[in-house]
């Protein structure tokens, strides 16, 4: 067997294993569904713009919960739990249902009160009791 055919066979095998390893319920991310939640199926870069020509800000692990608020072509703007935001390619994302501890806009639920994307209280949150003077 020639070297080119051997390489092609290895690549084909790796691709089929990668596709089979996706969970049965995994649905490749569809840009028309944002805002929504997604998880990367592999480690992916978080970039500071929508394209591979933009700088890499972080490497996100497989399975990290991301809030997708918009997509431009093959790139989606995501928000991470640590508060960082950036762009990642749509090709490694799968759609996940909204987690029970989240609101539809990606904010965390906390005892009936809402936190924003960076973990701070929303301005409209009620005052529990005033601080003593």
Description of the molecule:
This protein is α+β, with helices and mostly antiparallel strands and 133 residues long. Helix content is 14%, strand content 31%. It is globular and about 80 Å long.
Summarize this entry quickly.
The protein is an alpha+beta fold and 133 residues long. It has one helix at residues 3-20, and strands spanning 27-28, 36-40, 44-47, 56-60, 66-72, 75-79, 85-89, 93-96, 109-110, 113-114.
Helices and strands in order, then pairings?
Elements: H1 3-20, E1 27-28, E2 36-40, E3 44-47, E4 56-60, E5 66-72, E6 75-79, E7 85-89, E8 93-96, E9 109-110, E10 113-114
Antiparallel strand pairs: 1-8, 2-5, 2-8, 3-4, 5-6, 6-7, 9-10
Radius of gyration (CA) equals 19 Å
How far is it from the N-terminal to the C-terminal residue, by CA? 84 Å
* Helicity range: 10-25%
Number of strands: 10
- General form: globular
The biggest sheet amounts to: 6 strands, antiparallel
Mean pLDDT reading: 73
Number of helices: 1
Strand residues, percent: 25-35%
Q: Poorly predicted ranges (pLDDT <50, ≥5 residues)?
A: 8-26, 113-125
> How does the helix and strand content classify structurally?
alpha+beta
**Strand order, largest beta sheet:** 1-8-2-5-6-7
Element order, helices and strands?
A: HEEEEEEEEEE
